[in-house]
């Protein structure tokens, strides 16, 4: 049986980015860029004022103070989006507003609060050094400069930067299509009549959303009954996608046909079983290099193994150079005792207490019951060898879902 690290090491090489496509910026949020992106032009594109006030020559106002103002005639105006201002003659001022181009010849701005305009003249009551309150052309971005590196994820800030550069199309890695194939005679879809013994195929709805959140394209196939021919036919269909995930039928039960179906379809086995709790019977295989993952059907196992083993692989495939979650250090609220042997991924509620993150493990860890995932915001990693955990012991936890939130604003004591 493989450790989680060994399983990931075996799986990751099968998940390479699929090539690139060009998308409009408005369709690109959450995607990973597949090429370095360079600046098209300087930003700001021209010297402009950071304040409402007067554009001047710094030398003209060097002696200005509250008690002895320097009086300058006001010649012209520069406003954002307005006509370009005339060049500034020595010993004159130009009325200027935030974002407006500096007149040629001016090298500083005096803010409005330090002036007093009277008719065509302004009294400057404060000196201004050269460059003061001026945003210099190219001071933020230089034309040709590297804006984004291959593998950077487009998010709010990145979108803003590209938009500001008038970059409307961007090269991103393709999103893998991931087929989801549930197996089980008992499975019904949402809204179906539930005859005795039947259950809803809840996993497919969960995994569809987990895939969407990553940026992959979920392709949910109809659930198949537990018969070899039907599973094989469904697998052949599923193999049209870039990645195949099956759920259920991968344990050691008499009706667990997934292994045999893989063999019959020509899917090469990689490994079966990982030292993870929950989720031990996970299997990994490949069809002509295409990754095929068999997740256990138990809803908690499916969710946990997807998050721990599949999500990093898919992030890598999506183009993320840093696909691995980085846990935070937390303290256990309560003691915990268990059978050692496998790394346990325990559902928990994490909260801030003083300087620390405290994790309260859900009291129903073992079961496959879905209510034990409600409100969970952390997955606590309990090392394989350890059986006893004391209250207050340090553990690592992967933040999950909404992460840390509270009913009280963190700004209340911040001044
Ligand atoms: P299996 O892995 O097929 O042995 O299934 C283990 C448990 O998970 C059984 O109780 C199944 O009914 C349940 N199960 C399997 N597949 C799903 C699914 N797609 N959605 C919800 N529960 C499932
Ligand atoms: Mg089954």
What does this structure look like?
- The strands form 8 sheets. This protein has a 6-stranded mixed sheet, with no helix packed on it.
- The chain is elongated.
- The longest helix is centred in the C-terminal third of the chain and has 20 residues, at 299-318.
- By secondary structure, it is of the alpha/beta class.
- The chain has helices spanning 4-11, 156-164, 202-214, 228-238, 258-265, 299-318; strands at residues 20-24, 37-38, 48-49, 53-56, 70-78, 93-96, 108-111, 115-118, 121-124, 134-135, 146-148, 169-173, 177-182, 187-188, 199-200, 217-220, 243-247, 268-272, 276-277, 283-287, 290-295, 328-332, 336-337, 343-353, 356-361, 378-382, 388-389, 394-399.
- The model has no long low-confidence stretch (mean pLDDT 97).
- Helix 1 (4-11) crosses helix 6 and helix 4 packs across helix 5.
Unreliable segments (pLDDT under 50, ≥5 consecutive)? none
Q: Rg, please? A: 31 Å
Whole-number average pLDDT? 97
**First-to-last CA distance:** 55 Å
What is the topology, as strand order, of the major beta sheet?
A: 7-4-6-5-9-8
- Main beta-sheet annotation: 6 strands, mixed
Helix count, DSSP H or I runs of 4 or more residues = 6
Shape: elongated
The beta-strand count equals 28
Percentage of residues in helical conformation: 10-25%
């Amino acid at each position: 049986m493989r450790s989680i690290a060994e399983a990931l090491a075996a799986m990751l090489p099968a998940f390479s980015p699929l090539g690139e496509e060009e998308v409009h910026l408005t369709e690109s949020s959450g995607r990973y860029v597949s090429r370095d992106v360079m600046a098209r032009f300087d930003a700001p594109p021209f010297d402009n004022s950071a304040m409402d006030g007067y554009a001047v020559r710094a030398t003209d106002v060097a002696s200005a103070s509250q008690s002895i103002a320097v009086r300058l005639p006001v010649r012209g105006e520069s406003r954002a989006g307005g006509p370009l201002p005339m060049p500034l003659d020595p010993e004159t001022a130009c009325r200027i507003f935030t974002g407006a181009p500096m007149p040629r010849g001016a090298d500083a701005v005096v803010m409005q609060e330090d002036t007093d305009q009277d008719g065509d003249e302004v009294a400057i009551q404060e000196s201004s050094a050269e460059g003061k309150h001026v945003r210099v052309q190219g001071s933020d971005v230089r034309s040709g400069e590297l804006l984004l590196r291959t593998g950077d994820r487009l998010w709010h800030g990145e979108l803003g930067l590209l938009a500001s550069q008038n970059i409307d199309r961007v090269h991103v890695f393709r999103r893998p299509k991931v087929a989801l194939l549930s197996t089980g005679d008992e499975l019904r879809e949402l809204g179906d009549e539930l005859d005795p013994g039947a259950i809803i195929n809840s996993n497919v709805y969960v995994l569809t959303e987990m895939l969407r959140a990553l940026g992959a394209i979920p392709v949910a196939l109809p659930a198949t009954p537990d018969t070899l021919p039907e599973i094989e036919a469904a697998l052949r269909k599923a193999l049209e996608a870039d990645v195949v995930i099956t759920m259920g039928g991968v344990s050691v039960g008499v009706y667990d046909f997934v292994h045999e179906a893989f063999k019959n379809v020509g899917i090469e086995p990689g490994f079966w079983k990982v030292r993870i709790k929950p989720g031990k019977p996970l299997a990994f295989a490949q069809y002509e290099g295409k990754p095929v993952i068999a997740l256990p059907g138990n809803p908690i196992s499916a969710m946990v193994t997807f998050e721990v083993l599949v999500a990093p692989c898919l992030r890598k495939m999506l183009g993320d150079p840093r696909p691995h979650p980085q846990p935070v250090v937390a303290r256990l609220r309560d003691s915990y005792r268990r059978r050692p042997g496998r790394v346990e991924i325990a559902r928990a509620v994490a909260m801030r207490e003083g300087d620390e993150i405290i994790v309260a493990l859900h009291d129903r860890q073992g079961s496959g019951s879905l209510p034990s995932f409600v409100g969970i915001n952390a997955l606590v990693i309990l090392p394989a060898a350890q059986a006893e955990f004391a209250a207050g012991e340090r553990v690592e936890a992967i933040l999950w879902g909404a992460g840390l939130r509270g009913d009280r604003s963190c700004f209340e004591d911040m001044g």
